[in-house]
Every structure is written in C-alpha cells, then in structure tokens.
UniProtKB/TrEMBL annotation:
Its cofactor is Zn(2+). Gene3D superfamilies: Zn peptidases. Belongs to the peptidase M14 family. It comes from the Bacteria. CDD domains: M14_REP34-like. Pfam families: AstE_AspA_cat (PF24827). This is M14 family metallocarboxypeptidase. Keywords: Hydrolase, Metal-binding, Zinc. Signal peptide: none annotated. Residues 30-309 form the Peptidase M14 domain. One of its GO terms (molecular function) is hydrolase activity, acting on ester bonds. It comes from Pseudomarimonas arenosa. GO terms for biological process: proteolysis.
Length: 309
C-alpha cells in the first residue's frame, strides 16, 4: 500500500469535496496558543517599534489579530525591507526567528531602512502545527489578488500600495520530516493526485526567484547561515526537493507564478529560507538563530549592493 492510499481521508484519485474537508478540519487539534506565545512578544516591542494590526482572521469560534511590527518614522527616501514569518504555521522557527530578529538584531538597521516584519501570518495554523489554513488551503500558494486564503489576502491588501518600494523581502520557512509523512500525502489526497515522494534535505537551504535569482545575494545568505547550522547538500540527482541545485544550498522557484509569499513585492532582492529542525545536528535555538543570521545577511548584502540612498 502506498502512502497516498494510507491517508485516512478521501478516496484515492478523487479530489476532496466539502465532506472530506470538514472531516479533515474535525481532526485538527490546538497544540499551542498564539495569544500566549506570539502576541505578548509583539506587544513588548512597542517601546522600540510601531506595532499595528493589519487584519483579522475569523475561523469560528476563534478570532486572530494579524499583527505587524515596523520601524517608526517611515521615510520614502530610505530603502524598505519586508520580513515575513509563519506563512506555514507549523514552521516554528519562521515565527520565532522573526521575533528573535526584532528583539535582538533589528535595531542596528533603524535609521538605515524602513523595516516591516510580519512574524506570524497564519496564527490558526501556528496553533495547530499545520501547513494549511482552516479551509485546507495552503497560504503559500495563494498570494494573489482576491486570494481564497484570508491570511494571504490580508497581506496582499497591506503590501499592495507599497509593492514597488521594497529593496528586500525575505520569507522565513522550514522543511520538516512531517512534509514527507503528513503534508505531501495530505496534498495528494486533497487534490486526487498520485503521491510523488521527495527526500527531506538535511540542512538549511534557500529558494531564489527563477525570474530574478540574484545568485550572489543567495550565496551571501548561505555563507552567513553556515556559521550557525549546516547547509543542505544536493541529493544523488543534484537536487533539493525535486529542484536543481544551482549553487551550494540554493534552488529556484517561480515566485509569482506559484503565488508564493516571497513574490509579493517587486523587490530586487528576494529569498525564502528553509531551516531543517528535525536534524540531529541542529537544535531549535540554532534554527531560530539561523533565521536571524539569514535576515541580517540579506539586509547587509542588499544595502551594500543597491543604489538606494
């Protein structure tokens, strides 16, 4: 029996309808609290940064305030930087790394850039340690105008008037063992497709934009993170998660075509980080620190290689 046939919801080869989605939703369990883990740390930043609510999610009976943190005194003459985390709620270091960057490293860039950080884009999924939202939709394939994912739609509305103002956008993610054991099988079952297994890379890697790969920028991020945790090697096919490795620890995806968060802006420098938290060679603290190192290296490279004032 293959992994897809063993998935407990739906009929192999048949896309889910409303009953299957309802069954899937009924199985989701709240494991942690956004209001306890994330919101107090954001609120504690108000003395140093501007904190704003940019939207609200309503998945009855739950409501979630969507929060951003940005530098005070936004100045159109400065380059602007966007940092996003928690697009996939189960990718813990995306959220914790964004918060850690704000708490420990962001102040060094104040006065040099306009900084906007969205630490937890998908709080419902954060609480349930899941990739999808409550409608069984992947927010990170949904960053388009009129998106069906409310998480993505809220960010789209926020960023739309600023899209051409950003120098850099870095989106913080993880690749976990549950990608292979749960989320890819669930995706195949939901869409009525055959499961095509892919190996889980052991280590950190980044995803550049096929349309604007910026190889030196991606390598600067890899070099910084290599001081914190190990970099994922290519597999026997010279690939990471089915995509050709174009440089150590670097693959490319078409950001805008796929509706990825990293394609939200028209920034010349964009990347998606991928930490591997299930490695025997990495701790949660290292994963969070790797995200911070990636953000700092990305900003440093962008500032040093742009014509922005």
């Amino acid at each position: 029996m293959n992994e897809q046939a063993a998935y407990p919801i739906g009929i192999q080869g048949k896309p889910w309808g409303a009953p299957e989605r309802a069954e899937w939703l009924s199985r989701q369990v709240q494991h942690r609290r956004y209001a306890e883990d994330v919101l107090p740390r954001i609120a504690a930043l108000q003395e140093r940064f501007e904190v704003q609510q940019y939207g609200e999610l309503h998945y009855p009976p739950d409501r979630y305030s969507l929060m951003l943190v940005k530098s005070r005194g936004w100045d159109a003459q400065r380059p602007s930087v966007l940092v996003t985390g928690g697009v996939h709620g189960y990718e813990t270091s995306g959220v914790m790394g964004a918060l850690m960057f704000l708490e420990q490293a962001a102040e060094r860039y104040l006065g040099r850039v306009n900084l906007m950080v969205l630490p937890c884009i998908s709080p419902w999924a954060y609480e349930r340690i899941h990739r999808w939202n409550a409608d069984a939709v992947d927010p990170n394939r949904s960053f388009r105008e009129h998106s069906e994912a409310e998480e993505s739609a809220a960010v789209w509305r926020l960023i739309a008037p600023l899209r051409d103002q950003f120098l850099l956008h870095i989106d913080l993610h993880e690749t976990t063992d549950t990608d292979g054991s749960e989320f890819r099988p669930a995706l195949a079952a939901r869409d009525g497709k055959m499961l095509e297994p892919e190996g889980i890379p052991d280590g950190f890697y980044v995803v550049g934009d096929t349309a604007n790969p910026q190889p030196e920028f991606q390598q600067a991020v890899i070099a910084a993170v290599a001081k914190v945790t190990h970099i994922a090697p290519a597999d026997e096919n010279g690939e990471i998660i089915g995509s050709p490795v174009v440089a150590p620890g670097v693959i490319n995806y078409p950001f805008k075509e796929l509706g990825l968060c990293a394609g939200l802006t028209d920034a010349p420098f964009t990347t998606t980080t991928e930490v591997y938290p299930d490695s025997d060679r990495a701790t949660p603290e290292q994963c969070n620190a790797a995200q911070v190192a990636a953000v700092c290296a990305a900003i440093d490279h962008a500032l040093g290689n742009s014509e922005a004032p």
